[in-house]
Amino acid sequence: MKNLFSIGEVSKYQNISKQTLIYYDKIGLFRPAYVDPDNGYRYYSPKQIDYLDTILIMKKIGFSLNEIKEHMQNYNIDSSLTAFRKQLSVIDQKIQELNLIRSRVTHRCDQMECSKIYRQKEDTVVLEDMEDQYILFREVEKPYTLREISIATKQCFSDSFQNQLPIFFESGVVVPLQRINEGRFTEASLAFLPIEKTDKAGNIKKLPAGKCAGIYHIGDYLSIGRSYEKLLDYCRTHCLEIISDSYEFCINDYITSHDETEYITKIIFYVKEKGV
Q1: Other C-beta atoms lying within 10 Å of the C-beta of residue 254
Q2: Which of 132, 181, 217, 257 could cysteine-pair with 265, CB 3.0–4.6 Å?
């Protein structure tokens, strides 16, 4: 039709699907200037093309369709400036969140790239001075099996996602020293996620700086007892007193591999020399 664009032409010029234009019509966001009563074909005026530009730009900026529809009912410079300023805050928050996620993914990649180094340290006990760190935790319910550990871990992730907490994409557990001495190596009392210091949650525990004895366990979790035996034997023969429960950090786990032989768990105890 003269001076009107068909839905196919608008779709081509704006690189937008016909289905999307039909949907915009149905929700009252962008209705055609004319609908042929005989065949139902939609046609749009040249002025509407500019209007569609505004819709698509606002959508690209991050406005929802409902926000765009409400804004464009009667918009001017003042209302547009208010809306765009508000959206700047939303964009800044998303950038901050993405930067955090990027740093966590980078950390996870670094861990996977170091897997070969960790494997070379298998069966070797390492003494190191740990810095302060924090964990977001959930208690593991009885009977402390892998099922209950998995549930507590997923609750930690749920807490962190819901409250936008600065976690690392890594999990771990705390196993009481008494249970370890009794050979109950997999009966954790807490599941946790390493996290940056924050006051956004109450279930956060500080692990203080201190000397730790650690070992890398390679393989499935149920075989972790063999690594504990080596770590306990090292502490006995080197006159080290264990002064904490065990902290296990999953370096490679189900997040990075379905093959349990590739799992790597770092086990640490806080220790001090006996008599000191």
Answers
A1: 13
A2: 217
